[in-house]
UniProtKB/TrEMBL annotation:
GO cellular component, one term: mitochondrion
Name of the protein in its database record: Complex 1 LYR protein domain-containing protein
Domain of life per record: Eukaryota
Domain spans labelled Complex 1 LYR protein: 70-131
Gene Ontology terms: biological process: mitochondrial respiratory chain complex III assembly
Pfam family, one: Complex1_LYR
Organism: Malus domestica
PANTHER family: COMPLEX 1 PROTEIN CONTAINING PROTEIN, EXPRESSED
């Protein structure tokens, strides 16, 4: 947008309508405004972050990667811990624990070389939500089973 704008300098005496140099100078000191539209836009448009040199940028990227790597490993450990509770077999006779671990490993391997921070964050949040949801559902089913057993034993 600023590239299309041309610098237009309008003398203050035309704006004010007076030739009095003292008045123009004092008005200018009070105003302290930009001389051109480009200067006005420069002051009020959010500027990009300052450019970092290559070493600082690499260090910042390493910190981000280390942080997301740590979060991913934490999520993976949480999944492994949560699968300990799934001890019954599926229709093929394989323990659900092993099926869940295998699927988790496969999903982590598919996302291993992902570099987009938004995608990584979305995957981590989705993973944490899925683990929490699975644990909550399992706990609810166990509560129902316990109530059913207590209610069935008292009849």
């Amino acid at each position: 947008m600023t590239a299309n704008l041309q610098k237009c300098r309008i003398p203050l005496k035309l704006i004010i309508g007076r030739n009095d140099a003292v008045f123009n100078c004092s008005w200018r000191l009070l105003h302290e405004g930009p001389d051109t539209v480009e200067e006005l836009l420069d002051r009020h448009i959010v500027k990009k972050e300052k450019h970092l040199d290559e070493e600082e940028e690499e260090l910042l990227n390493r910190r981000r990667l280390t942080s997301t790597r740590r979060e991913a490993l934490s999520l993976y450990r949480d999944i492994i811990r949560a699968t300990r509770f799934f001890m019954w077999p599926d229709s093929r006779g394989v323990l659900w624990r092993d099926v869940l671990r295998e699927n988790a490993r496969k999903e982590f391997e598919e996302a291993r070389f992902e570099t987009d921070p938004e995608v990584i964050t979305r995957l981590l949040i989705g993973g944490h939500d899925a683990v929490q949801s699975a644990i909550d559902k399992l706990a609810e089913k166990q509560r129902q089973q316990i109530q059913k057993e207590r209610g069935g034993g008292q009849d």
